[in-house]
Design a protein that fits this description.
Blueprint lengths: L2 E7 L5 H17 L3 E10 L3 E9 L4 E7 L2 H35 L1
Helix pairs in contact: 1-2
């Protein structure tokens, strides 16, 4: 099972919010099996800000999302992290393809 660190700043994280976070982040783990650790920090000041940190082999992915609703902020964050994972996978495939093409020349 992959590790998810959940923390709140200036607010407490309820069980409902924790279960939504775990559900959303488990989807990310199924998309990319190379995630070592996922961290999410939710802060409340002038709305809700969710900051996500995915620790991967190589460069980590760090993104944030802001909304008036904590559930919307988490949803936006997981969408951004999913796009970041897809972008990273696409660039890795491109680099492999270029390496193979250069080796064949």
């Amino acid at each position: 099972m992959n590790k998810i660190n959940i923390s709140g700043l200036n607010m407490s994280i309820g069980e409902e919010l924790k279960s939504v976070i775990e559900q959303k982040f488990n989807k990310l783990f199924t998309h990319q099996s190379r995630i070592i650790t996922a961290s999410i920090n939710i802060s409340k000041s002038d709305g809700f800000t969710a900051k996500g940190h995915l620790e991967l082999k190589g460069k980590n992915i760090i993104l944030s999302a802001h909304s008036d609703n904590p559930f919307k902020a988490i949803d936006d964050l997981t969408n951004k992290l999913d796009r970041g994972l897809r972008r990273r996978a696409r660039t890795e495939r491109t680099k492999r393809k270029l390496t193979i093409e250069n080796a064949n020349k």
